[in-house]
């Protein structure tokens, strides 16, 4: 009985979170180009970091959360550093601007 | 009890199996820790002759003799050092690394040049020779997994010379290994003016079947004395004289499929045609008009796509290359017995052509980068090359387009590889007519007769 109740509770939670998710999935991807003013990353093994970008258009500072391994690695070895201009796409998830695309605009 | 013993045994075996990989610590580490890292000579104690050999390779010279491209002098060397084409339009010579003129709007300058993609220090530049050049090789950019890229940037030394920095710390030298994907991608990822620009080249588990298996560049590009094997990309001329191909017997061989119907195609169709159905990167650039960025500097106007966002063009290719001012691409035909239908990334670039000869001109990026004046870039390049009356050459130069077919050799897929109907349906990816098939042949090549039975079987299996 107890188990069955727990199951119902879990299902209810799932339902809520599914609705919650589809809500965020509809959230639009926001695109911006800006220059990095600050990178904060906690050491070599960090699985997440934040980069503050100054939006070229609005001059607003936007804090971006970066979770993908390739970009994190570029923060760690400084292939991406403060002063670099970045083309970025992000989604607002739980109040955080989570990066979906984070790339230097310039090349060789 | 029994099961926990066997679990322990499995864990132990796993641990042991994992050991060699983990234990692959560089035997020179202790010596480097003790003596510090002072450049290639620190490595040469145990790897003598490496730097001298490196100076002979494409990665140092950015050039080699080229035998498969028409219109070239067989005694001269060609490569990124001196080539003129419209993906880059500059090269190591005319667009040599330097401080560009100040932006009239911000008063700021920056460093720019093609030869930043070189593992030297610029004082010993592309194709330099001798003991100084040997000392300048940046071994760690390819061999360290702990390289600090803040060091790898241009600066002016006390004498005002432009130097390309390197991370020569002992810390970096204590993390030596075979080159990882990252080591190679330091340069290859951003070739042509930004990430994935040149070839749409992304090598991740999402974009490439081999990357998904954990393979790295040098699993295929197995270097010998730092000579790196490459293929026959019509636009990658310089080679170290070693070839790598998917059909190498040490890789897949010419008959890799269980399905004989597929194997029958490999004589006339390159592996890449079925296994690299997409491409990406820049597809058009205009070097005659540059766009201003937020930092007020200018860059060539560029249209680009991500990896796997565009479709290739297909042509017969026998490994030899047509090379004219308006076209660089594959030669071959259905009849020559040597060609295969091969996919290419197509790219078109606009640049200036010499009025008198019709030849493509090159550009020094420094002037246009500062103020958008592209003809000043042409004049500067013409001056560097010793052409007569550079100002006049630039003034009379005629804008025009060049089309380039790039080899498409990464972004490999199994699950999305082309199947029978992708080609043999009437709306298939191949234009049989352009490829030289007669109307009667096309009728035969576009009937479900060829594949209906087979695909029905497959359909049944899938459900």
UniProtKB/TrEMBL annotation, chain A:
The keyword Signal applies. Residues 1-27 form the signal peptide. Keywords: Signal. The keyword Signal applies. It comes from the Bacteria. This is DUF5666 domain-containing protein. It comes from Geomonas silvestris.
TrEMBL record, chain B:
Residues 1-23 form the signal peptide. Pfam families: Cytochrome_cB. The keyword Secreted does not apply. One of its GO terms (molecular function) is oxidoreductase activity. InterPro entries: Multihaem_cyt_sf, Multiheme_Cytochr_ET, Octahem_Cyt_c. Keywords: Signal. Gene3D superfamilies: Flavocytochrome C3, Chain A. SUPFAM superfamilies: Multiheme cytochromes. This is Cytochrome c. It comes from Geomonas silvestris.
């Amino acid at each position: 009985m107890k188990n069955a109740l727990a199951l119902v509770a879990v299902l209810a939670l799932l339902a809520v979170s599914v609705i919650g998710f589809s809500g965020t999935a509809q959230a639009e991807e926001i695109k911006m180009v800006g220059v990095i003013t600050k990178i904060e990353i906690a050491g070599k093994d960090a699985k997440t970091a934040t980069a503050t970008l100054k939006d070229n258009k609005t001059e607003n500072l936007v804090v971006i959360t970066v979770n993908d391994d390739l970009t994190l690695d570029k923060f760690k070895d400084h292939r991406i550093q403060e002063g670099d201009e970045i083309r970025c796409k992000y989604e607002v998830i739980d109040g955080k601007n989570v990066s979906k695309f984070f790339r230097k605009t310039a090349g060789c | 009890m029994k099961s926990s013993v066997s679990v322990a045994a499995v864990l132990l075996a796993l641990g042991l199996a994992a050991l060699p990989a983990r234990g692959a610590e560089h035997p020179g580490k202790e010596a480097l820790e003790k003596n510090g890292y002072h450049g290639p000579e620190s490595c040469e104690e145990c790897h003598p002759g490496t730097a001298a050999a490196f100076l002979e390779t494409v990665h140092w010279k950015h050039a080699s003799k080229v035998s498969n491209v028409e219109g070239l002098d067989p005694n001269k060397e060609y490569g990124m050092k001196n080539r003129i084409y419209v993906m880059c339009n500059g090269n190591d010579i005319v667009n040599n690394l330097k401080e560009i003129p100040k932006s009239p709007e911000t008063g700021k300058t920056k460093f720019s040049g093609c030869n930043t993609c070189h593992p030297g220090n610029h004082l010993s530049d592309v194709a330099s020779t001798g003991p100084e050049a040997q000392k300048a090789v940046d071994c760690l950019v390819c061999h360290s997994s702990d390289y600090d890229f803040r060091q790898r940037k241009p600066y002016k030394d006390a004498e005002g010379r432009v130097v390309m920095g390197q991370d020569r710390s002992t810390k970096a030298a204590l993390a030596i290994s075979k080159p990882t994907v990252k080591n190679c991608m330091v340069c290859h990822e951003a070739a042509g003016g930004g990430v994935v620009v040149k070839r749409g080249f992304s090598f991740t588990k999402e974009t490439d079947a081999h990357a998904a298996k954990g393979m790295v560049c040098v699993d295929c590009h197995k270097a010998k004395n730092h000579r790196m094997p490459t293929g026959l990309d019509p636009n990658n001329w310089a080679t170290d004289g070693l070839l790598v191909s998917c059909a190498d017997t040490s890789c897949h061989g010419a008959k890799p499929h269980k399905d004989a119907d597929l194997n029958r195609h490999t004589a006339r169709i390159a592996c890449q045609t079925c296994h690299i159905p997409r491409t990406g990167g820049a597809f058009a650039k205009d070097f005659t008009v540059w766009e201003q960025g937020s930092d007020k500097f200018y860059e060539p106007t560029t249209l680009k796509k991500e990896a796997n966002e565009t479709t290739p063009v297909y042509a017969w290719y026998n490994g030899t290359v047509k090379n004219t001012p308006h076209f660089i691409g594959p030669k071959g035909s259905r009849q020559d017995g040597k060609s295969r239908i091969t996919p290419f990334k197509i790219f078109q670039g606009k640049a200036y052509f010499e009025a008198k000869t019709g030849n493509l001109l090159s550009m020094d990026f420094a002037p246009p980068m500062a103020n958008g004046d592209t003809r000043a870039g042409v004049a500067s390049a013409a001056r560097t090359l010793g052409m007569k009356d550079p100002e006049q050459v630039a003034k009379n130069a005629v804008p025009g387009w060049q089309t380039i077919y790039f080899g498409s050799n990464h972004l490999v897929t199994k699950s999305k590889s082309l199947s029978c109907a992708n080609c043999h349906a009437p709306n298939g990816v191949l234009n049989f007519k352009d490829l030289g098939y007669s109307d009667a042949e096309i009728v035969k090549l576009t009937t479900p007769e060829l594949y209906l039975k087979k695909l029905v079987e497959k359909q049944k299996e899938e459900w």
